[in-house]
Amino acid sequence: MKTKGKKAFQCQSCGYISPKWIGKCPDCGEWNSFVEDTILSEGLGRKSSEGTKPLSIKSIDISLSDRLSTGIEELNRVLGGGIVRGSLILIGGDPGIGKSTLLLQASENIAKKYGKVLYVSGEESLMQIKLRAERLQITSENILLLSETLVERIIGCAQEEELSALIVDSIQTVYTEEAVSAPGSVSQIRESATKFMNFAKSRNVPLFLIGHVTKEGAIAGPRVLEHLVDTVLYFEGDRGYAYRILRSVKNRFGPTNEIGVFEMTGKGLSEVSNPSLIFLSEHSPTSGSAITSTVEGTRAILAEIQALVSPSNFGMPRRNFIGVDYQRVNLLTAVLEKRGRVNLAGADIFVNVVGGLKILEPASDLAVISAIVSSFRDTPLPESMIIVGEVGLSGEVRAISQVELRLKEASRIGMKGAIIPKGNLERLKDSFNLKIRGVRSINELLEIISY
Predict the structure, then answer these.
(1) Which residue stretches of 343-421 are H helix?
(2) pTM score
(3) CATH number of the 68-273 domain
(4) Are 72 and 245 in contact (CB under 8 A)?
(5) What pLDDT does 357 receive?
(6) How is domain 277-449 classified at the architecture level of CATH?
(7) Torsion sign (Cα): 217, 219, 221, 226
(8) Is there a contact between 451 and 374 (Cβ–Cβ < 8 Å)?
């Protein structure tokens, strides 16, 4: 049956449909995102599934759900221990961050251990992929390359081979004949992702989709794309640093908010198995520098927070924060002025997390306040000490989660002391060979770091 469609305007951010062009999307609030498109009629052009029957949960065999190792421990960690057969995995990130490089390196290990891997590129020619593979020293004969953008042809080629994995680079460049809009549009991404999902589930083959991101950092295309896939990974990094962070924001088969740390080298991405040492490798006990511990998934990482407080030469003091939440640090500054009696009204304040790491959890509040006060007074903090704790609006220091994991990592790295919330100290069962002090308010913290 031929599909029928009607002309309409569709938001390229969320998929909202309007009969006429409008400047601002009433659903997601995006401006100038409406593009004229052909919208397929519901129920047309779809084949119904016949012969499918429900099965008892006890009769389902899970022996084939054993995870496949990618040969890259940091990637395995983010995936929850490896790749689940038949899973659909979406990886997004800025251009040139290393998405294709990471999956090409993983495909080499998968191909050597489990069998053929099909790498499909809609952006590069086979010669370009071959040149990159030679730079990465990838020589496995089980890696099959295909330069194609039509989804039906990609799936047809994949069905002819016994694959251990399929990689599509990228979902925004491929298109299906069942949607008449241009590649990268909302309808094309939705239909193409649905076809890839059906292939992965029916053939029990893990499938990786590489996705472009918008200027806000979100996966380009409709939000339904992230709902369709089993796992969503974001590849983050600053071009000024060699380190890359792979972050899991959705995982049906493992923990979320898990991260893997990599270093970009001339021969590809190399794993960083001990990120705490990397982020603290150039730490020096100077004023305005504080060490904190942040938990990403199941891993505790020590990071250095630097602050610079200087008198402002303008009527409006500047506030510039990198790697921490802007609104959160403004709140902490106000608490420090009101409850701690520290006059910061006429000072410029700059805060930075060293190494390009982003810390969003409130457990770093005490470290941010300590770094600001240390720079304001031009007095270094006690050496080899980590500072963790959440700060409330009344200046109280609240207990945080997983404090033992943070202290254990600090002891392993060689820290000598720690400042933690008093509520955590009262429930602590081990000192981890650290001199631990508990505080109930920021005023008690200011007394400790003043000496």
Answers:
(1) 365-377, 403-413
(2) 0.80
(3) 3.40.50.300
(4) no
(5) 85
(6) 2-Layer Sandwich (3.30)
(7) negative
(8) no
